[in-house]
Design a protein that fits this description.
about 35% strand, five-stranded mixed sheet, CheW, CheW-lke_dom, 20 strands, globular, Chemotaxis protein CheW, OB fold (Dihydrolipoamide Acetyltransferase, E2P), mainly beta, CheW-like_dom_sf
Length: about 325
């Protein structure tokens, strides 16, 4: 089953096979490029390597706008090169709902769906296409405009320049260091991370059926592709204080091949690859979550959860979710 990373461009949902993606990073200050490529927005220095950056707005025939610190660069590896796609933000990871064509399709490398999504199943072919792919846009998509939302242009420029300098620094020669792909999400005002190897999919929350007689951290059950799974509220499980309003409109489905259940999240914030030895210890009193469920902290603010430990806890699931 193919897993897709979903992201947005001018509100239009797009997706790329997760296997094609190296990492997702925040937008940086771009450098002018020599020559001209269809959709080319400039280049970035990725630890000494010049990576071409493609504007998905340009590739899809949408109006251009200046880059913002809230934008993302999806660094992928089409055949023979490394390239970065400029998008508005990441929406999450889920299994493909459509059959991806092996080669030929009406638009090289991309497939529009009935839900108005654009699935880029062959990035190399999509980037090599000679014509703008505006025919992939859903009905009603706006191709004019291009104005950036209100922002402090000077501050934005400083952030983008600092990020560019950080990514230009050479990587340490630590070839033996293992890496983990992480998905980060927001819950009750705090950002958390989980290794994507334990994530089956992410979906917008729909109807959840309450179940009597279960622990209060299990909010109920729901059907996912014909399978009944329990849904867990980590706030109740770990006694996480509630801070203001919360959306809880995403369900992250965790699985280790034996146990499967969902956890609630406000929204997905990012997905990226990180060395596993860069988790730092979590200071006492930072979180009420027990140490056995923690991998450590990332950049002093993101709490990395141990999905394997959470999945292994027999109290986390109800009978219907065990195979």
């Amino acid at each position: 089953m193919t897993h897709l990373l979903f992201f947005a461009v001018e509100g239009i949902p797009c997706a790329l096979p997760l296997a094609d993606i190296r990492q997702v990073v925040g937008m940086v200050e771009l450098q002018p490029e020599t020559g001209k490529r269809r959709g080319g927005a400039g280049t970035m220095n990725l630890h000494g390597r010049t990576v071409p950056v493609y504007s998905l707005r340009s590739l899809l025939g949408l109006a251009e706008r200046p880059p913002l610190p809230t934008d993302v660069l999806i660094i992928a590896h089409p055949p023979g090169e490394c390239a970065a796609l400029w998008a508005d933000g990441v929406r999450g990871v889920q299994e493909s709902r459509v059959q991806l064509p092996p080669d030929a399709s009406p638009s090289p490398g991309a497939l529009p769906t009935e839900e108005g999504e654009i699935i880029i199943h062959d990035l190399g072919a999509f980037l090599a296409a000679e014509e703008t792919a505006h025919h992939l846009l859903p009905a009603g998509a706006t191709v004019t405009g291009g104005a950036a939302p209100p922002h402090d242009a000077e501050k934005a420029g400083e952030i983008l320049a600092e990020r560019a300098r950080a990514f230009a620094r050479p990587e340490k020669e630590n070839g033996e260091t293992p890496f983990s792909e992480l998905l980060t999400f927001r819950l009750a005002g705090q950002e958390y991370a989980i290794k994507t190897q334990y994530i089956r999919e992410v979906f917008i929350m729909h109807e959840i059926t309450p179940v009597p007689g279960v622990p209060d951290f299990i909010v109920g059950i729901c059907a996912v592709r014909g399978e009944i799974i329990s849904v867990v509220d980590l706030r109740a499980l770990f006694s996480i204080p509630k801070h203001g309003l919360t959306d809880l409109n995403r369900v992250i489905v965790l699985s280790d091949g034996t146990v499967t259940f969902g956890i609630l999240a406000d929204y997905i914030t990012d997905i990226y690859i990180r060395p596993t030895d860069q988790f730092s210890p979590i200071e006492p009193g930072t979180t009420p979550i027990e140490q056995r469920y923690l991998l450590g902290a990332i950049d002093e603010s993101v709490i990395a959860l141990d999905a394997a430990a959470i999945l292994a806890d027999p109290a986390m699931v109800i009978d219907q979710t065990r195979k």
